[in-house]
Write a structure and sequence with these properties.
21% strand, five-stranded parallel β-sheet, four-stranded antiparallel β-sheet, 25% helix, 9 strands, alpha/beta, Rossmann fold
Length: 269
């Protein structure tokens, strides 16, 4: 009798997850179940906290309430272990690329930073090509090592950010790849190419990661996701909404509205 296939494990699970900022909740009441090997997209306009949620799930921010488990580790107690297994592609304001460095210099720097202390920091001759090969795209040339990052177009900068994140796999399994603001590019073709790259990476590396690589991404408009990517069984879109005001402490008087109050600018995405 043939045994039923084992379902892929849940890599990200949250219940009632919330984070507060100086002006109220950044995100709140987030319930997620993300299975291994999928492309999970947090989709919502500015102010819905999608970037902050990605950083919280990557162990880079500490939520204020709720429960979260990523790659088998409870947050926030297991932040260190989560940071080892969740790799960040370029996130604006967190790990921006340096326009004055070449592609090769970025890769060499990342290889040096992620190498164990007992190993020589000088990588092998094939280390840079191997790192860039992870984001090869058959529709266009590979990333040229000697090009300055400032001279790359939007899609190639995105590819480089992903390649740098995945260099961590040289020394330890990467369970989750995080890619923020995938549709934050003016060229629709670049946006579509970025989605196809992420869809291709989702589920890869199954020999080292049970169920394959899981990709957590964010965008402002679900319509930016190409139809074939969105229709794939491996793609799941989670809508993000702006959270309401934080509940007042028990016994606290209700705030009085002021007709003269100026609207607050959104401080988070």
């Amino acid at each position: 009798m043939q045994q039923a296939a084992t379902p892929p494990p849940i890599v990200v699970r949250t219940r009632g997850l919330g984070l507060d900022g100086p002006r109220g909740p950044v995100f709140d009441g987030v319930d997620l179940d993300v299975t291994a090997g999928t492309l999970a997209v947090l989709a919502g306009p500015a102010g819905t906290g999608r970037t902050s949620l990605l950083l919280a799930l990557a162990g880079r921010m500490v939520p204020d309430r709720g429960e979260a488990e990523v790659a088998g580790h409870r947050l926030p107690r297991g932040r260190g272990a989560v940071q080892q297994q969740v790799a960040l592609a370029a996130v604006r304001g967190v790990n921006d690329l340096d326009g004055e460095l070449t592609v090769e210099e970025h890769v060499l720097e990342r290889l040096a930073l992620t190498s164990p202390w007992w190993r020589l920091l000088t990588p092998s001759a094939g280390a840079v090509p191997a790192a860039l090969a992870t984001v090869d795209d058959g529709d266009r040339p590979g990333l040229a090592p000697d090009v300055l990052v400032r001279d790359l177009d939007a899609y190639d900068r995105f590819r480089l950010g992903v390649a740098l994140a995945l260099t961590d796999r040289r020394h330890r399994p990467v369970t989750v790849l995080v890619a923020d603001d995938v549709d934050d590019r003016r060229d629709p073709q670049a946006v579509a190419a970025a989605w196809h790259l992420l869809a291709r990476l989702a589920g890869s590396d199954g020999e080292h990661v049970p169920g394959g690589l899981t990709v957590l991404a964010s965008c402002s408009a679900p319509s930016s996701i190409p139809a074939d990517v969105r229709a794939s069984a491996g793609t799941v879109v989670h809508p993000m909404v702006r959270p309401g005001p934080a509940p007042a402490p028990a016994g606290a008087p209700a705030p009085r509205a002021s007709a003269a109050a100026a609207p607050l600018k959104e401080a988070v995405r």
